[in-house]
Design goal:
The longest helix is centred in the N-terminal third of the chain and has 18 residues. Strands 2-1-4-7 form a four-stranded mixed β-sheet, with no helix packed on it. A three-stranded mixed β-sheet has the order 3-9-8, with no helix packed on it. It is an alpha/beta fold. The protein is built from one helix and nine strands; from the N terminus they run H-E-E-E-E-E-E-E-E-E. Strand 8 and strand 9 form a beta hairpin. It has a single domain, classed as Immunoglobulin-like, CATH 2.60.40.420.
Length: about 110
Amino acid sequence: MTWRAPRAALVPALSLVFAAALAASAPHEVKLDAIQFSPAELTVKRGDTVTWRNTDPVPHTATAKGKFDSGNIAPGKSWSHRMDQAGEFDYICSYHPGMKGKVTVK
């Protein structure tokens, strides 16, 4: 005879598994506003998605040379990137090089 867990006991356990899976790929947002990235520095987990949302009246980019490049992010638009590689990634807006940000992926 094999032991089986009661169904009522499985529901909370499965809920924890799904919650952990969702937390592992949590979304993060960086606003492009007033010619700056906000927050300017962000730490995420490997596999998380970062979304850059442009709330400025001018276009911007999120460009980490050789790692990721959003291309043009028009006013009112956004761009998302899944961070699959661990490391520290400094990035700029290629239109406004004084706009600097950093994503650290653990």
